[in-house]
Amino acid sequence: MNRIKEQMMAGLLASTILAGTILAGGTRLMYEGKTIFESEAKVSFGATYGERAVKAVVNAKEEGKISVRTDKKPVRVFVNRELLDAAQWNYLEDKKMTTLTVPAGSTNVQFRFDDMASLKPTSLTFNVAVDPAANGGKLSLELKGTNVDEKFSGQVAWPDDAAGLYEVTVSENCLLKPVNASRVDDKTFFLTKGSALQVDAEAPGGKAPDVKLSLKCVGNAVKVKAQNREKLLARKDIVKFEGEAFDRMIGGEVSISKEHKNTSAGGCIFAWGTTGTRLEWDVKVPEAGKYHVVFVAATQETVALRKFMVNGKAVSEAALIAFDGTGGWGRSNPKEWQAFEAVGANGKPVTVEFKAGGNTLALENFCGQHMNLDCIVLYK
Q1: How much of the chain exceeds pLDDT 90, in percent?
Q2: Does 11 have pLDDT greater than 50?
Q3: Residue 164's closest CA among 110, 204, 220, 89?
Q4: Which of 188, 294, 302, 324 has the most crowded CB, counting CB atoms within 10 A?
Q5: Which pLDDT band, with edges at 50, 70 and 90, does 4 fall under?
Q6: Ramachandran region, residue 198 (left: φ > 0; alpha: ψ -120 to 50; beta: rest)
Q7: Could you report the per-residue pLDDT of 106-152, keeping only the tens digit for each?
Q8: What is the pLDDT of residue 149?
Q9: Beta 151-157 vs 248-250: how paired, if at all?
Q10: Domain at 25, CATH number
Q11: Domain count, the chain
Q12: How far apart are the first and last CA of the chain?
């Protein structure tokens, strides 16, 4: 039986497999000379053996009595998550087998040797430790999930108004799976509307696991507001320069397309998906002052993050911009090209100081999302 436990028989074992003996109208499964399973009817059977439980699946065409080798008397027996009365099953000491009756169809049976009292799903809620500085101290989060079959699985749903970069720490017994979140490194993610933090943990014996989840805000990204692209490009007072006409590329590669439709000058940047790839444009403006900066872009990502710099310095109010997804890459659908302007914490467009004459504007891929760029537009 020790070898059986080590090998953990898994999957359905058909009644006709090698070492199985067909009884008169029934099934017997042998393993190394020992009877592992018996049934009054022809059925298929599979099981996994562990220290705390034997978990079996039986497929039968009709109700019938089965016997499963458990090697010792179970503390409790469950059928399809329902606890059986002690009178509904019997342990045969001489055969080291436990007998019970199962219904027709597919039946899950658990023979428990621990103190598991119920297999039914249990709802659990854990408080999340949040950095007081996050979202102005207004961010309060809970991890809500279900404990079932000795596993906990839950999520933290991310609020719409708390977009930013967060360092996430979870206890060692847990597995963290960010959902719709941009990964900066193993612990840091950009979380925004539609994001979630999935947490899974083992729950031996059905007990609530020790789950500790904490978040620290390590940076913010400004949102964008879409403008009417056609009206913007029709203005007479704009300074427009093409995305594909960048002057320098640092730290990676991008591609230039002449096949994407509905671009301002017949071309655009695409395949801009490597973290750290910076593009720089030399820009001339007619007079010094503060300018609106609008990016005509397309992305199928949920969000695309770009660092924003002018004349070698991060733009103080918009150092990191979170571009919303547009639903596609702008290959043929004109609606997938959208004109975006960064919006500050006050809800107003961010204007940027430029000097008269030559300036340098730069965008850098922050954490690997793709975004196609048609052109950049400045106006006062």
Answers
A1: 80
A2: no
A3: 220
A4: 294
A5: very low
A6: beta
A7: 999 999 999 998 999 999 999 999 988 777 778 999 999 999 989 99
A8: 86
A9: unpaired
A10: 2.60.40
A11: 3
A12: 81
Asked if pLDDT for residue 23 goes beyond 80, the answer is no
- Diameter over CA atoms, the chain: 98
Amino acid found at 75:
V
Dihedral in degrees, nearest 10, Cα atoms 164, 170, 176, 178: -10
Same domain, 189 and 331: no
Q: Which residue's entry shows tokens 């439980």?
A: 53
Identify the CA nearest to 181 among candidates 200, 155, 202.
Answer: 155
Residue 326: which region, alpha, beta or left (left: phi > 0; alpha: psi -120 to 50)? Answer: alpha
Q: How far apart are CA 330 and CA 257, in angstroms?
A: 11
Is 215 found in the same domain as 236? no
**Residues 97 and 69: beta-carbon distance below 8 Å:** yes
Same domain, 31 and 138: no
Write down the pLDDT at residue 25.
64
Domain of 43 in residue numbering reads as 2-112
Query: In the listed set 161, 193, 219, which residue is the last one of a domain according to the structure?
Result: 219
Domain membership flag for residue 16: yes
153 and 210 belong to one structural domain: yes
C-alpha–C-alpha distance, residues 187 and 192, integer Å:
16
Domain boundary among 219, 251, 279: 219
pLDDT digits (tens, 9 = 90+) for 279-326: 999 999 999 999 999 999 999 998 999 999 999 999 999 999 999 999
pLDDT above 70 (res 7):
no
**Per-residue confidence (pLDDT) for residue 162, from 0 to 100:** 86
Q: How many CA atoms lie within 13 A of 377 on its CB side?
A: 24
Q: Please tell me whether residues 105 and 129 are part of one structural domain.
A: no
139/152 Cα distance (integer angstroms): 24
What is the pLDDT, as a whole number, of residue 54?
96
